[in-house]
Amino acid sequence: MSDDSSRHFVQSLRKGLEVIASFTEDHPRQTLSDVARRAGMTRASARRFLLTLVDLGYVDHDGTIFSLRPTVLQIGRSYLSMLTLPDIAEPHMRSLSEAVGEAVSLCLLDAEDAVIVAQQRPGRTLSHQTFVGSRLPALASSPGRILLAGLSDQELDEFVGVAKIRRLTPYTLTDRARLGEVIRRVRRAGYAVTDEEYRIGIRAIAMPIYQRPDSPAASLAVSVRSRRVSARMLVNDMLPKLQLTIHAIEGDLARRANRRQNPDPAGT
Known about the structure:
alpha+beta, 46% helix
């Protein structure tokens, strides 16, 4: 580092970024000791930076394990680069959107919302468009419900019990007990459909995307105008195409993971 650089270099910022960078595709969830070791700092320093990032909303902490939150997207593409999921999913999302003529969104669960991290739209667009960065109430949206279905029964009951519930349309389900039942049915079915619960005139269907077998990494949703596509058509026509798209995305994710674990020594 030059003398000129040293005068304006902020060491604490560098260390904070090193803490964020310690979370990777292979290490998305870490203990305090893991972060300290990977970031090359003491446990005390790592703890200060992590708790600051928790307070700022960039890191989640369940008492033992730390993980990045999608809020990190606000300061860069660190979260997306870690997952690699949007870059892999977007070509398949584009093909699906063109095939069905509807908007296709990739969502992650963040607190009580499903956050859109990638989206493809055809030439025609939905009224009251969503966009990358839009937050959809998890309990009232199909991408949110399919992600909530990946929680354990205890986690789901706790979520439904404390989540803020707003009646967004006359069709929004607000009864907590019924919401729990609906999400358990979603878990059994493997897909979620919402019919004008989030916005009047909009239906949507979503399925989970898995990078690991224990819980969904994201959800993929197709949104349609209710006057153009019935709920029956959504399941009969859109669901098979959505399933094929997700299988293709998961296949690419698996192949990429395999290449990382078994690199070609010849470099071919």
